[in-house]
Design brief:
- By secondary structure, this protein is mainly α.
- The protein has seven helices and no strands.
- The longest helix has 24 residues.
- The relative contact order is 0.21.
């Protein structure tokens, strides 16, 4: 597969993304939780460049292969904390909003709120939204896997 757009991203878009990323990381969420959230949403959306880059980014932060290989099956895998499970459930629910899916139910929200304060929840939601944004852009332009950020 070859990318449809080869020119660098618009400078204004890059600046906006950098501000959103800064705000997300200022939310006080463990960066590894944000990496897991990003990876799970990208897996759901089938975004190979984001899965590839997300795994590389998580590994640079110290994430283990064992956990990274288990993100797609986090419910059955014993490697995740209750807080991570709540964040992954929130990421899945916020990503799967098509075709009548229930989205973020009160139960999912309450489970996440039991582990994260409002500022942290905002950061997780922003991470999911940004991931879904990048997943859709990558699908539209046919960005291949292999790049990291």
């Amino acid at each position: 597969m070859e990318a449809r757009i080869k020119s660098p991203a618009n400078a204004d878009v890059v600046a906006a993304v950098q501000l959103l990323t800064k705000a997300m990381h200022a939310g006080g969420v463990d960066p590894l939780v944000l990496e897991l959230v990003h990876l799970r949403a990208s897996q759901i959306n089938g975004c190979s460049p984001c899965v590839y880059g997300g795994v590389a980014s998580a590994k640079r932060r110290g994430e283990t292969d064992e956990r990274l290989h288990s993100v797609a099956a986090w419910r059955e895998a014993p490697f995740f904390t209750e807080a991570e499970r709540a964040a992954l459930a929130l990421a899945e629910a916020a990503t799967r909003i098509q075709d009548g899916a229930p989205g973020v139910t009160d139960e999912i929200w309450q489970a996440a709120a039991a582990h994260f304060d409002e500022k942290q929840l905002q950061a997780i939601i922003l991470s999911v939204a940004m991931t879904n944004f990048f997943n859709r852009v990558n699908h539209a332009v046919r960005e291949p896997a292999g790049k990291t950020w």
